[in-house]
Each structure stands twice: as structure tokens, then as C-alpha cells.
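Reopening this one. Same input as before:
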Amino acid sequence: MSDSTELLVLRLALIGMVFLFVLLAGVVLRSGLRPRRAAAPAPSRARGGPRLVVITPGTTGLHPGAEFELAGEMTIGRDGGNGIVLADPSVSGRHAAIMRVGRDWTVSDLGSTNGTLVNGRAVDGRGFPLRGGEKVVFGAVVLRYLP
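Same output, byte for byte:
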């Protein structure tokens, strides 16, 4: 092979490597632009721990019957940093909190725009005790509390 042929092959190899690098960088950057998925609701099971079950999902992309297991203190809202993420425009970024108080669970509103309702009654920041079977409404999303 002549010197000019070797030089041409090296140049083409370098162009190929630069192209591959740019392609891979684009794929990585594009994947970083996608919104993070929040923890998926727990699959349905016969276990009887406290949970919230989706009745009316709004535009969250969840399916009726999807369940969220409750643990300790959790925030509920549209932002990905919440323990329970309800990605519906009617749900505030940090909409409400649900926490264990002794053996019971309490839901409280965190100053949301559209409010939090339990069985049609507005909830304030002081909280509302949940006993079992209540419909809890966050904007257009309706969940049922099961102890």
C-alpha cells in the first residue's frame, strides 16, 4: 500500500470515530432529556397493608386499580420527588402529605391549588384521619384508602 492510500484509510477511520462519538453523545443527551419516571405503583396483591388505590386516574397514565403502598410519611404531587407521583396538571407539585399517626393514617393538604378532599370534605394542613374506604381526591385524581 502506498503512503497516500494509508493516509486516506487513517483519515476515513478518524472521521468514522468522530461520527460514532457524536452519535453516541446525542443518544446519551437525548435520554437525559426524558422526564424521570417515578416509582411505579405496586402491583395488586392480596396482602393487606395500607395503600391508596386509583379509582379515577385523570391524565396520570395510571390505570384504575393501580395501588400505592403507604410507608411512614409520604408526599403526594406532580413532581418526581414525591413518594407518590400523580402526573396530572390538576395536581400541584407538592399537593398533600399522608402520614402514619400511631396506628392510623392522616392526609393533609400542603397548600395545593385545587385542594384535597376526603369523601367530599375539604382537608386543611392539620390533616384528616383515614379509617378505611375513604375516597381521597387530589385535583382530578381520585384514590381510595384501604387500611
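So the earlier flakiness isn't reproducible anymore. For the record, The longest strand covers residues 51-56.
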